Amino acid sequence: MSAQDLFGDMATLEDRALGAYLGLAVGDALGGTVEFMTRREIEHKYGVHSRMIGGGWLNLKPGQVTDDTGMALAMGRALITSGGYNGEAVADSFVAWLKSKPVDCGNTVRRGLRRYINQGTLEGPYNEGDGGNGAAMRLAPLALISFGAADEDIEAWTVAQAHITHHQGRSDAACVALVRMVHAALRGEGVSGVRAEATRLIEAHPKFGFSPYRGHSSAYIVDTVQTVLHFYFSADSFRTCVTQTVNQGGDADTTGAIAGMVAGATYGASAIPSAWKGKLDRTVAAEVKAQTRALLMLAQRRADG
Ligand SMILES: [Mg+2]
């Protein structure tokens, strides 16, 4: 598609792009309440958990986000400052985020950032144990700045940001597939466009097959992607997709963030319930909006050549 086709209807594109990024933050904040709970525990305590009330094991304020959104914003800052993908800038920004004493930080992320601090390397050796969802939870800004880029660049930047903390084949495959799903949605291809990318992922890596759904919603990238895809394809709105995803429990902030990103790109920011948008941490919401505009502008400038 030409730059004119991709960026011609800027209002619609911006709504979908903001939907992806705001959807990630909203899903993170909603899911944080029930992270590490089982589906049955959530049902017993909330019936259906669908309100931005904070709490959970991190004792969050209503609308407060966790590491998923924190790392996404950190990557977005680096992409905007550099005007494109720059590995050192992204890693430095992740380190600045870590030093800001975030509310939480996964073990694989912490280990990867320590390696960068101590050795200056942008990736560690391949590690089958790096199969957590930490590289996939922060993709929204990368998906926006790489919209309309060549396939090999999309893949190279996506995998490079992943390898700063996670160097594992299924993590890489999932990250690339998720970015491509967001791109399909940004092009207006809707659920069927996302379906084509899911099929492509599962053909290459059958472990990601999610039907029948096994009900595992852990931080293992395969469980996370299966959960997101199962609820994304069984829902017909942002609200249903994200609500059902986080009510599965487990790593609910991250499954919520990823489901929110893909559903937000599909249905647009205007389809995110106002009650959720209104409760989202204001500083976060403002930065998400500003970054979305800047990232799209950079993507358009590159596409225009
Ligand atoms: Mg989190």
UniProtKB/TrEMBL annotation:
Name the Pfam families for this protein.
Answer: ADP_ribosyl_GH
Mention one GO molecular function: metal ion binding
- Keyword entries, A-Z: Hydrolase, Magnesium, Metal-binding
Identify the cofactor(s): Mg(2+)
Q: Which residues bind Mg(2+)?
A: 66-68, 251, 253-254
What the record notes about the co-factor is: Binds 2 magnesium ions per subunit.
What is the protein name for this chain? ADP-ribosyl-[dinitrogen reductase] hydrolase
Q: Which organism is it from?
A: Rhodospira trueperi
Q: What is the lineage of its organism?
A: Bacteria, Pseudomonadati, Pseudomonadota, Alphaproteobacteria, Rhodospirillales
